[in-house]
Recover the amino acids of this structure.
């Protein structure tokens, strides 16, 4: 498979089977794994779909149709390390279980990936599943909602140990109304963290004179600038991620308030172990050198910033809690329902860089994609790829509207596979019905100056598929309010 090709598998499957996610029938190539794949689940179409994508992209093409088929044999060697990076942002959603399924990567998609890794290495491989969720998320809730806890316990019962790691440097504890009242800092990556300084090779450099305006939600104004300024552009990268000989990126297909969409590229925000090292937006309006909002709305500005002030002081947390309690009970679900019906959302209520004019977060997205491809295990950057990369996007049940955490489920029925993050993001945008040229982290990847993130042009990217309908496929995902009317394809 070429880097400029993306395989799109189209199906009518929009849900996921129950653990342990056994295949629906015996596949001859998996017989050598013995009791690891001895069970059957006739209702599990997901396993079949993943297998069909591996066949469709032409992996180990010469052995397809025979017991010797081994799709990952060129991607991983015995004794090496594979890190599987899902999207595990959060474990609860206003819409309950269906909302969670559309928000985070489901274990049913990861099960066949692991089986074929075991096949490729005769079970002699170090497989790790790891992510850096939202700092205020509950890890136990996440691994239950994704069913990854069930998955690793299944493999453990077969004598295969697969670590399931929460790599966050910080966990923010919330009261029951979602107001942070304690921050717990700890090195949760068992291998530690490495500071990767991109210096003047960072895509933040063209706006570095405005570094004092760099912001991230839930932190004060001086949090990000020490890490991104004229002297440094540093990220706090998890060593477990850097240890990978092969990174398998398994994101969800969703709209995104700050980036437009999240798929292969945006998911790599989760290789950075400490959110305080990420610039998400710049304070103020574009006229002020910022991208926090389109135009200052005094009332909205007061509401957002006053609440932010209240929840950062232990003396005023009770007041912030009352406000959040009212918001959860009377506003949030109603707002989601109204957003699903609106065809012309207004920019007047947009804050925190949640709109198409966000000129900051795309820069960090590209930086982190360059790091995963071109930083070696010690964090030193090179001009040639330092590890193998494979991406499978879980788009069976996607998310539209106010993603990534308040999205509405979207029955999309697609799985995407590829070996280049930009090509994957490009085709993700296309099938969602979004104009890639209006999504900065995709568009600007083709203007990369220092690292060969793409060795092709947009017109060179092609789709291969199991369906003739895919070439013109437009699933018409609803963008978030701050992007509506701007990125939709005509």
């Amino acid at each position: 498979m070429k880097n400029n090709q993306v395989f799109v598998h189209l199906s009518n499957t929009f849900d996921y089977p129950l653990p342990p996610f056994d295949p629906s029938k015996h596949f001859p190539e998996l017989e050598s794994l013995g009791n690891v794949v001895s069970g059957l689940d006739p209702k599990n179409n997901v396993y079949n779909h993943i297998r069909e994508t591996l066949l469709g992209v032409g992996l180990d093409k010469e052995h397809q149709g025979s017991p010797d088929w081994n799709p990952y044999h060129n991607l991983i060697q015995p004794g090496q390390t594979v890190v599987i990076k899902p999207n595990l942002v959060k474990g609860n959603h206003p819409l309950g279980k269906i909302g969670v399924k559309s928000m985070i990567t489901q274990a049913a998609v990861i099960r066949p990936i692991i089986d074929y890794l075991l096949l490729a290495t005769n079970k002699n491989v170090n497989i790790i599943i790891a992510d850096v969720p939202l700092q205020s998320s509950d890890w136990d809730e996440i691994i239950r909602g994704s069913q990854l806890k069930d998955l690793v316990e299944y493999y453990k019962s077969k004598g295969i140990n697969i670590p399931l790691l929460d790599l966050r440097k910080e966990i923010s504890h919330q009261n029951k109304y979602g107001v942070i009242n304690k921050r717990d800092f700890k090195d949760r990556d068992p291998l530690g963290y490495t500071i990767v300084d991109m210096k003047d090779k960072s895509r933040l450099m063209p706006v570095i004179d405005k570094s004092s305006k760099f912001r991230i939600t839930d932190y004060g104004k001086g949090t990000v600038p020490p890490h991104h300024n004229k002297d440094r552009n540093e990220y706090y990268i998890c060593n477990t991620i850097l240890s990978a000989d092969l990174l398998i990126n398994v994101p969800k297909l969703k709209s995104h308030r700050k980036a437009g969409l999240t798929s292969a590229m945006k998911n790599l925000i989760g290789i950075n172990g400490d959110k305080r090292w990420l610039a998400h937006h710049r304070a103020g309006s574009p006229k002020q050198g910022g991208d926090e909002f389109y135009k200052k709305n005094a009332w909205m500005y007061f509401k957002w910033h006053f609440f932010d002030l209240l929840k950062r002081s232990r003396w005023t947390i009770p007041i912030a809690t009352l406000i959040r309690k009212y918001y959860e009970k009377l506003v949030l679900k109603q707002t989601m329902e109204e957003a699903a019906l609106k065809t012309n959302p207004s920019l007047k209520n947009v804050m925190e860089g949640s709109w198409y004019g966000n000129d900051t977060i795309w820069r960090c997205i590209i930086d982190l994609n360059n790091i995963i491809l071109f930083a070696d295990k010690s964090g030193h950057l090179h001009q040639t790829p330092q590890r193998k990369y494979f991406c499978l996007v879980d788009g069976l049940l996607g998310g539209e509207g106010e993603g990534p955490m308040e999205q509405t489920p979207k029955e999309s029925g697609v799985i995407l596979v590829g070996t280049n993050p930009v090509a994957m993001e490009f085709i993700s945008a296309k099938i969602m019905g979004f104009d890639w040229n209006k999504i900065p982290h995709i568009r600007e990847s083709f203007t990369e100056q220092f690292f060969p993130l793409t060795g092709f042009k947009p017109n060179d990217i092609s789709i291969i598929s199991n369906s003739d309908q895919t070439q013109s496929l437009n699933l018409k995902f609803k963008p978030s309010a701050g992007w509506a009317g701007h990125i939709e394809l005509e």
Summary: The first strand starts at residue 5 and ends at 10. The chain has one domain: 5-472. Residues 5-472 form one domain.
